Structure formats: structure tokens, C-alpha cells
Amino acid sequence: MLALSLLHAVTAIILAIYGANALLMTLLYLRRRRQAPPSAPEPAEWPLVTVQAPIFNELHVVERLIQALAALDYPRDRLQIQLLDDSTDETTALAAAGIERVRGQGLEIELLHRQQRPGFKAGALAAAMPQTRGEVIAIFDADFVPAPDFLRRTVPYLMADPTAGFLQTRWSHLNAGYSPLTQMQALALDGHFVVEQTVRQRSGWLFGFNGTAGLWRRACIDDAGGWQTDTLCEDLDLSYRAQLRGWRGLYLPDVDAPAEIPPQLAALKRQQGRWATGSIQTFRKLALPVARSSRPLSHRIEGLIHLGAYFCHPLMVLLLLLTLPLLWFGDSAANPLRWLLAYLGVVSIGPPLLYALSQWELHRGQGWLRRLAVLPLLVLMGAGLALSNTAAVAAGLSNRPVAFRRTPKFHVQERRDLWRNKRYALPLSWLVLGEAFLAGYALLTVAAALVRGHYYAAPFLLLYVGGFGMMVVVGIAQSWQRQPPRRRMGKQPRPAAVVE
Q: Do residue 118 and residue 172 come from a single domain?
């Protein structure tokens, strides 16, 4: 029992460190929020920019993407656009037709299609480099719709600082109000982009490029070793390698690029799982270089916390599994649960405060407080994703190759837009059985806490009950709703599978 108590204590302390770090970032943001970089002058000569858009099976959004790229207000003779297409469905034909329609506008735009996709997104970016002429490379994922003035607002900042290797902008949202699920995701993303990225960049800490809605200096990519395919987070990997080589990263929270938020819980899980796997792969690859670098100790610690953030999820599962035996068999007089859970409760206010601050910063005077109505649901979602992300972390720790499973997009912007019966809608994962088990296990742990008189533990444990319960209920409901009525009753044949 002593060993279980020690393991529980170590788990709780590590989780508390992450909660405290969110609280630290909230406080640092209040200190650094006005330290915005001065406006950059328009360059005497605009550099040649290559815009790259990696796509894979995006038939719902590829035409919208091409139209947005064609509308970029940048000197036509200084602009090259590449669609890096690895698709195996009708997306390729739609992209080719869309490109033909906009070529008449004086654009240099081409479709680079690969029959095979080794390296996935990173492989597509690396394969296109020999055909890339730009001094600056802008990257947009398929679900992004950059404003026409995006390049004119961002390129000057990169050109004004020769030590800047990359530039990231803030993600905004095309469909934040579509459903409670998209509202929760918007809240979480805003917390990351408004507070976390701003604090990391303005504090001089290592921070990550988010894979899209940003710029790279071609010389920086080459100097840092290029796009590499040994992680699923090629963006995080390259940005850290670049900063370890001495390049600076820039972040512009006042420039945004809107994108589509996944409306399906299964799609959100896939996205989170890919990020979790790729982040842990990058941690394995770069933790030692970060720890041994010549940067200040605080910068190295924050870099390791950032790279290892997804370790929180297996720790959350472990904490739950350990709590039941400790509550039932542990000596209540010597049991450390009381002060550990109290400490966790105090520092766990860090993430909610961070999210609230981001909404105040973005929407003050525009009903920012109303946007926090889904905050309790976001807290539950954070607990509920623990099992699926634990599986993703385990994949990141293994030496086995992991496939890049892209997040499906459905061109969902208005409430009336439907996604449930569109191509790419995902089936229910068998992982829901594990989530149902953990919801029941957490409920049993709540009962044990009440029976043994550990009432202080019940609110914390109820987060697990609600979080895993939400995953089960929403997952099953969306899986049921995505099927046509006849198919639900077994009267409709199964359609052909879509190659992912």
C-alpha cells in the first residue's frame, strides 16, 4: 500500500505542476500582453512567396481552399502556389478543375500529386521543396480560409528580422457556434493561441509552429535539417530544431486565419490523438537536445513541459485507477489523498482562468462572459479525452511506425450545415468500451469515497464520471445519428469504404 501511495503522490504532483504552469502563464500574460512587436515596415521589394497547401482526401473543402488562395492580395509576379495532393479519391479531380478556373487570374498555381504518400504531410512538404522557388514559404491546411491581406500583413515582420526563421498567426474559427462541441474546442484553442503562444514567444521560451497559418524562411528550413518524417508533428519538430539552431520564432496574435473546427467527437479524438502521438515522438527525439542546450534553465524546463504536455493524460488515468484501492484500503490517518487532492484542486483553476482570460481578451464588450457557458463541459471533455490520448501517447512512445490519420473536414460553417451523412464521417471506436469502464470505475470510486468518509475526493472524482460518460453518450449518439434511417434498421447496404 505504501508503494501505491507513493506512486499516487508522484502522479498527483506531476499533474499539479502542469496545472500550476497554466496558472503561471495566465499571470505572465497579464504582464506581457502589451509587449506587442512594433509594426513592421513594408519591404522595399516584396520577396517571392511560395504558398503550400498539403491536402489528402478533402473533397468537401478543397474548392473553398483554392478560392481563398487565389484571392490572396500579393504581387502576382512574386507569388507561387502549390497544392500538395496525396488524395486517393475525387479530391484530385476537383483540385485540378479548381486550379484551371483560377489560372486565368494570372496566378502561378500547380497541383503536385503523389501516387504514394511516404512520410504523410511531412513527406509531401519535403518532396515539394525542389520545386519551391520562394524565399518565404506560407503553409495552409485544407480547412483554412486566409484573408486576402494575410501575406501583406505577415511577410513584412519576417523580412524585418533576419534572425526570424518562422512566423505563426492565431487560429480563428469558421464554425465556433455550430454546436456545444465546437464551442468547447474554440474555447480551448483560444486559450492556447491567445495566452500560451503569446507568453511563450514574448518570454523568449521555445514554442511550436502550429503546422498551418504561418510562414517559414526557406533558409531556416534548410539550416534546421528540413522537413523530417519521423514524427507526426513535423511542425513542432522543425520549429524546435530551428530554435535550437539559433533561429527565432515570431507570433502575431492580432493576425488570424479562420478554420473549421471538427463537429464530430470522433474527429476531435483523431485530431487530439495525432497531436498527442506526434508531440510525444518529438519529446523522445528532442528532449535531450533541449535539456543540453545553452538556453537558460527556465527556458529548458518550459520547453520540456511543452513537449511533454500530453503525458498528463496517462497520468490522469493512472491517478483514477490508484485512487480506489487507496480510498478503500488506505489508513485514513496517514493517507496523503486529502492534501494531494486539495493541492490539485487549487492549481487546477489554472486552465479555466487561462480560457476565461482568452475570451476576455478577444471578446470583451461583446458577450465574452457568455462564451464561458461551455467551460464546465470543456473541463469534462479534458477528463474524458484521457483514455484516447493515453492510447495515442503509448503509440508515440513505441518504436512502431504510426500512420498520419488526418482530421476529416465537412465544410460545416452554419448551424444548418450537415456532416453526419457526408463522406469521411467516422465510425464509433471500440475505445468507447474502455471509456464506459472508466466511467463506471470512477463512479464506484465516488461511492467508496463516500462510504469511507473521504467526502473531499468526491467532486474531483465526479469529473471523471462526467468526462468519460460524456465521451460514451456523445460518441454513441453521433454514431447513431450519422447513419441513414434505413441503414439503422439493416435495410441499406454498406457503402464502399473510403481509403484513409
A: yes
Nearest CA-CA partner of 128 in 227, 234, 198, 243? 227
Of 86, 190, 237, 256, the catalytic one is 86
Per the structure block, which three cell numbers stand in for 265? 467527437
Per-residue pLDDT reduced to its tens digit, 35-79: 888 899 999 999 999 999 999 999 999 999 999 999 999 999 999
Q: Is residue 294 assigned to a domain?
A: no
> Does a structural domain hold residue 286?
no
Indicate the pTM of the whole model: 0.92
User: Which domain covers residue 183, as residue numbers?
Assistant: 48-261
The answer to whether residue 107 sits within a structural domain is yes
Q: What is the mean pLDDT of residues 206-219?
A: 98
User: What single-letter DSSP state applies at residue 371?
Assistant: G
CATH of the domain at 97: 3.90.550.10
- Residue among 43, 40, 65 at smallest CA distance from 53: 65
Among the listed residues 143, 190, 235, 256, the single catalytic one is 235
CA distance 420 to 434: 24
Look up 86 and say whether it is catalytic: yes
Q: Which residue reads 461551455 in cell numbers?
A: 374
Tens of pLDDT, residues 341-380: 555 566 678 889 999 999 999 998 788 889 999 999 999 9
What is the residue whose three cell numbers read 490508484? 322
Q: 204: phi > 0 → left, psi -120 to 50 → alpha, else beta; which?
A: left
